């Protein structure tokens, strides 16, 4: 069973799994697919048009958003429809805190944490387990790598390597917190060599993560921190 407050506005083709709670004054516009056990709202808007300066009045009526399961999407967050690609996507067990801006064509993978007043620009990709601290801004097409963290107030204008810690005014360092939290301690030395010295990993577990990031990095056309 889903619990949907009577003030919620639902327009178009919106499908739900089970166990969702949609809180007061939220707006959901389809095409929109929502999985199970999500908490959304209050005053969340999902499905508004992507904000595109090239064509600010573009028709996005058939553009889809997909949201997985176990997510928390807090008040005043906006998730916008795609413009250039096929989908705006939010994975599983993601936590969007207050006033987060998720733009057109964004890809947000599993276990991502995005804290209050973070704004992403279009086509950004935030990969598994990444964390964006208070007030971070992310440039168009940027890729924030798996299990990385970006410090408060950072303007992300390049891509962020997996397992790294980006803090304004300091050298790139290893995000040891996520290495431990997500069970990568057996590969700590290998991860450190990759983050700090750019040495290619040798283990299958870390190589798979790095290869996925490197592919998205190459496609993005952006530089690397």
Topology, pairings included?
Elements: E1 3-4, E2 9-11, E3 14-16, E4 21-22, E5 27-29, E6 32-34, E7 39-40, E8 45-48, E9 65-67, E10 72-73, E11 78-80, E12 88-90, E13 95-96, E14 101-102, E15 107-108, E16 113-114, E17 119-120, E18 125-126, E19 131-132, E20 137-138, E21 143-144, E22 149-150, E23 155-156, E24 164-166, E25 173-174, H1 176-181, H2 188-197, H3 204-220
Parallel strand pairs: 1-4, 2-5, 3-6, 4-7, 5-8, 6-9, 7-10, 8-11, 9-12, 10-13, 11-14, 12-15, 13-16, 15-18, 16-19, 17-20, 18-21, 19-22, 20-23, 22-24
Antiparallel strand pairs: 24-25
Structure description:
The chain is of the alpha/beta class and 225 residues long. It has a single domain, classed as Hexapeptide repeat proteins (UDP N-Acetylglucosamine Acyltransferase, domain 1). Helices cover 15% and strands 27% of the residues. A 10-stranded mixed beta sheet has the order 1-4-7-10-13-16-19-22-24-25, covered by helices on one side. The termini are far apart.
Count of separate DSSP helical elements: 3
Number of domains: 1
CATH topology annotation: UDP N-Acetylglucosamine Acyltransferase, domain 1
Kindly state the percentage of residues in helix.
10-25%
CATH second-level architecture: 3 Solenoid
The quaternary structure here is single chain
Order of helices and strands: EEEEEEEEEEEEEEEEEEEEEEEEEHHH
């Amino acid at each position: 069973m889903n619990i949907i407050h009577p003030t919620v506005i639902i327009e178009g083709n919106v499908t739900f799994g089970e166990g969702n709670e949609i809180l007061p004054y939220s707006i959901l516009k389809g095409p929109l697919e929502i999985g199970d056990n999500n908490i959304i709202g209050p005053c969340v808007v999902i499905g508004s048009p992507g904000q595109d300066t090239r064509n600010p009045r573009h028709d996005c009526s058939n553009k889809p958003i997909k949201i997985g399961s176990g997510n928390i999407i807090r008040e005043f967050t906006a998730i916008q429809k795609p413009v250039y690609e096929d989908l705006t996507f939010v994975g599983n067990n993601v936590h969007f805190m207050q006033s987060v801006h998720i733009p057109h064509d964004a890809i947000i993978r599993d276990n991502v944490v995005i804290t209050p007043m973070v704004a992403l620009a279009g086509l950004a990709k935030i990969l598994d387990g990444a964390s964006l601290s208070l007030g971070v801004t992310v440039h168009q097409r940027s890729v924030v790598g798996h299990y990385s963290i970006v410090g408060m107030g950072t303007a992300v204008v390049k891509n962020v390597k997996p397992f790294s810690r980006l803090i304004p005014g300091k050298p790139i360092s290893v995000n040891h917190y996520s290495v431990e939290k997500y069970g990568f301690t057996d590969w700590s030395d290998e991860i450190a060599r990759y983050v700090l010295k750019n040495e290619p990993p040798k283990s299958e577990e870390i190589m798979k993560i790095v290869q996925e990031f490197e592919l998205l990095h190459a496609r993005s056309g952006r530089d690397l921190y």
